[in-house]
């Protein structure tokens, strides 16, 4: 009977204080409190949806309350500073410090286990260099009519609708001040992307938001009109994203406000579908034809695509089509399975898609092996927040890096993991005006700008220490990883990197190429 003790006690105390309140009115509020608890316990006993509440009236609610604050309890009181779940306190603190332009130095030695497996570092030189500027840039779309000079660190895809109006505005204002780009996400170009005037990469997903008719078909004229905006510097076709590759999504009609409907070109109040696949192409060659078509419609702006690697033969089919037809994207953005700003089913978040490191190396190796690497730029996204993250990613084959959650931290995200609930406590991932209006746009834009600047300054200092002069000089031999307590290897020794043109003369001794290269097709995403 002990499990009913709280319920029985609430009834007894209600009766007791009701009698006391009859004698002394000052005690009425105590009787009300216990009366409410008694009513709650009675409801628990009568309802049939929860066995736990029927067996533990009143007490079960304490369990639910503790469970609801479990993530916060673990994050603030239990987890170590280096536990990445998904980002460690140390990682978040670094972003907060750099976004606020406060001292980010640390005392008393590293908290990393330097003798633990997977510990990584970059070797330094006895003759460090001096680099005057931290504004590292590269040209994307050298063969296009309107090439773009991009920063090596930019804001990854996050849509208006997923993020609030204030968050989008602050991100774009920060990008404008720092002269780096802001990827729109597949939700298209909103008024909040346009108002500050920062550079945009327009991400075109399977829903063709912003350039579609009401039936969801691609509309060439609407695309051309939007792509002509001076702010739109590049166009990115989204094949898949790291958080939920191959899944698609639905924005419920209740969330399709007038602003979102106008931005996406959909009906207000009607479910907004983002299909799991594109309707404008169904083969690798058709994908490249679509790239060429968008390049013409955009007036010669760089056009590429973003993908999270899944079946390797599908990527090989695209690569073969590039070599056979001569139709090349200006860039490819590789999104790792560790990406995660978009809410996704647990199985997709945890067990679908290839992590960024392996994906990046596969794309890089394939282009090198086909002798196309110098013609196609590669960007990479996936849990990048520090200068070392950028350096390591570029050593593995990327020309530049994008970050999403890093810039969310710069906006003030506290990793409450409530992005999908519309109750984001910091006003970032919500459409609730009472929440996002509390986000101070000028202040957060400054933090976005400062996070970008201070991270690139950190990258500059790393390069100087290594005796290098530009990020493009980082190669796999510069980054080392401990694979056991007694064994250390460079990335160049750990992984098989192809030589230029190696795929043109035969299949290399590489398991994935050996198994799938000959089975891939340029005319289909299926196996031969």
UniProtKB/TrEMBL annotation:
Query: Cross-referenced InterPro entries, in alphabetical order?
Result: Aldolase_TIM, GltB, Glu_synthdom, YerD
Task: Tell me the Gene3D superfamilies matching this sequence.
Answer: Aldolase class I
Q: Which SUPFAM superfamilies match?
A: FMN-linked oxidoreductases
Pfam families reported for this sequence: Glu_synthase (PF01645)
**Keywords, comma-separated and alphabetical:** Membrane, Transmembrane, Transmembrane helix
Query: What region holds the Glutamate synthase domain?
Result: 149-468
Membrane-spanning residues: 5-22, 28-46
Which superkingdom? Bacteria
Q: Which PANTHER family does this UniProt record tie to the protein?
A: ARCHAEAL-TYPE GLUTAMATE SYNTHASE [NADPH] (PTHR43819)
What family, per the record? Belongs to the glutamate synthase family.
What's the protein name?
Answer: FMN-binding glutamate synthase family protein
């Amino acid at each position: 009977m002990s499990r009913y003790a709280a319920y029985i006690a609430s009834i007894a105390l209600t009766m007791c204080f009701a009698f006391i309140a009859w004698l002394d009115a000052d005690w009425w509020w105590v009787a009300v409190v216990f009366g409410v608890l008694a009513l709650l316990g009675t409801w628990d006993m009568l309802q049939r949806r929860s066995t736990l509440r029927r067996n533990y009236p009143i007490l079960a609610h304490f369990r639910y309350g503790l469970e609801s604050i479990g993530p916060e309890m673990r994050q603030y009181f239990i987890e170590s500073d280096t536990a990445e779940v998904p980002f460690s306190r140390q990682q978040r603190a670094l972003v907060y410090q750099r976004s606020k332009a406060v001292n980010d130095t640390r005392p008393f030695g590293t908290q990393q286990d330097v003798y633990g497996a997977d510990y990584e570092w970059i070797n330094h030189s006895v003759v460090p260099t001096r680099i005057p500027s931290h504004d590292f840039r590269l040209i994307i779309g050298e063969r296009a009519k309107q090439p773009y000079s991009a920063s090596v660190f930019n804001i990854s895809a996050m849509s208006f609708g997923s993020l609030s109006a204030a968050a989008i505005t602050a991100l774009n204002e920060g990008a404008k001040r720092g002269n780096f780009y802001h990827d729109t996400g597949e939700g298209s170009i909103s008024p909040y992307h346009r108002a500050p005037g920062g550079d945009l990469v327009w991400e075109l997903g399977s829903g063709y938001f912003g350039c579609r008719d009401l039936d969801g078909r691609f509309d060439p004229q609407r695309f051309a009109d939007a792509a002509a905006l001076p702010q739109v510097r590049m166009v990115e076709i989204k094949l898949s994203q790291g958080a939920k590759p191959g899944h698609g999504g639905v924005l419920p009609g209740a969330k399709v406000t007038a602003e979102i409907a106008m931005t996406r070109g959909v009906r207000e109040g009607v479910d907004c579908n983002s299909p799991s696949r594109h309707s404008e192409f169904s083969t690798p060659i058709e994908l490249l034809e679509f790239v060429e078509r968008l390049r013409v419609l955009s007036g010669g702006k760089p056009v590429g695509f973003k993908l999270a690697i899944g079946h390797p033969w599908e990527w090989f089919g695209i690569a073969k089509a590039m070599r056979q037809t001569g139709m090349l994207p200006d860039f490819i953005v590789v999104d790792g399975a560790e990406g995660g700003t978009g809410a996704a089913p647990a199985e997709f978040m945890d067990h679908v898609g290839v992590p960024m490191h392996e994906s990046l190396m596969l794309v890089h190796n394939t282009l090198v092996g086909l002798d196309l690497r110098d013609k196609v730029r590669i960007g990479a996204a996936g849990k990048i927040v520090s200068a070392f993250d950028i350096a390591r990613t570029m050593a593995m084959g990327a020309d530049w890096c994008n970050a999403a959650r890093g810039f969310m931290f710069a906006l003030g995200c506290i990793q409450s993991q409530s992005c999908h609930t519309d109750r984001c406590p910091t006003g970032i991932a919500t459409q609730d005006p009472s929440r996002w209006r509390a986000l101070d746009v000028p202040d957060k834009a400054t933090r976005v700008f400062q996070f970008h600047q201070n991270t690139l300054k950190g990258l500059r200092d790393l390069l100087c220490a290594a005796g290098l002069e530009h990020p493009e000089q980082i190669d796999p031999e510069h980054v080392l990883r401990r694979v056991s307590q007694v064994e250390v290897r460079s990335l160049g020794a750990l992984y098989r990197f192809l030589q230029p043109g190696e795929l043109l003369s035969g299949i290399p001794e590489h398991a994935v190429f050996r198994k799938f290269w000959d089975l891939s097709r340029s005319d289909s995403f299926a196996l031969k």
